[in-house]
Amino acid sequence: MKRIVLLRLGHRPERDKRITTHVGLTARLLGAEGMLLASNDPGITRTLEDVVERWGGAFYVKNNVNFKEEIKKWKAEGGKVCHLSMYGLNLPKVSSKLRACEKLMLVVGAEKVPPELYQLADWNVAVGSQPHSEVAAVALTLDRIAEGEPLEKKFAHAELEIVPMERGKKVLENKSE
Ligand code: SAM
Asked: What is the Å distance from ligand 1's center to 109 Cα?
């Protein structure tokens, strides 16, 4: 089974709360097992844990990690590291290599990332060689490397479940045993 984890760097609690939360939600939706946050902002963990509680799955957040230690540990366990940056090789050129990884860490920045990250990463990958958003970069990458249809995945132990429909809204409220 493939394992994907997301490492978020450079989060500034005073201005990046919403975008980091969206990075985490997008990673969860598209198959990542968890997010490592290389900043101290416990509110992000609380928000995402609350989503997991209600909407299911086992996505986790590890707050205030040391990014170099996490990368070192991941690589020592045989994992590969893909840093998303508009300066890297374009995603269509490397997506098949990423898809073939059994353990993949995706790294996204907020402000400028430490230059050594470009050396620590196995791949520096651009989702198109233009500036845009870390949320879009994570979404497109995970969608391009997914096996099967990631948007149809069901989340285990969900209290809330949406019934897709053409019009209107229907949400099932599952009782926990
Ligand atoms: N100003 C920052 C810099 O010079 O590195 C980048 C800011 S950008 C909004 C934040 C993050 O989004 C980047 O660190 C990168 O992870 C991601 N990102 C933005 N555009 C990207 C692209 N075209 N391809 C891959 N990742 C991208």
From this structure: 6
Which range marks the domain in which residue 52 is found? 3-173
Asked whether residue 176 carries a pLDDT value surpassing 80, the answer given is no
Residue 29: give its domain's CATH number.
Answer: 3.40.1280.10
Mean pLDDT in residue range 131-141: 98
pLDDT at position 151: 96
Which residue ranges have their beta carbon within 6 Å of ligand 1? 84-86, 108-110, 112-113, 126-128, 130-134, 137
Q: Helix, strand, or coil here: 15?
A: coil
Residue 25 structure tokens: 């939600």
At residue 93, does pLDDT exceed 60? Answer: yes
Distance (Å) from CA 83 to ligand 1 centroid: 10
**Cα–Cα distance, 92 to 35 (Å, whole number):** 24
Q: How far is the CA of 54 from the centre of ligand 1 (A)?
A: 31
Distance CA 9, CA 58 (A): 22
Statement: residue 58 has pLDDT above 90: yes
Number of domains composing the chain: 1
Sheet holding 60-62, edge to edge: 60-62, 34-37, 3-8, 103-108, 80-90, 123-126
